[in-house]
Amino acid sequence: MQTTDKEQLSAADATAILACLPERIRTAILARATAIEYPIEAVVEMAFASFLDSEALGFADCKPGRGQ
Prior knowledge:
Elements: H1 11-20, H2 23-36, H3 40-52
């Protein structure tokens, strides 16, 4: 994984991170990305953010199609 100074994960970086995770966690993250129709890199970022900051955008905030 190449490190650069950027604000968002790339799809390649998210895939590399997922490859290091236990199968059950990887499967859950991929299933969540599919369910909410978000790119995998966004879901990986949300997982880290919600772990590090309880007030960060998290999975509970992801309600696609609600328009608010």
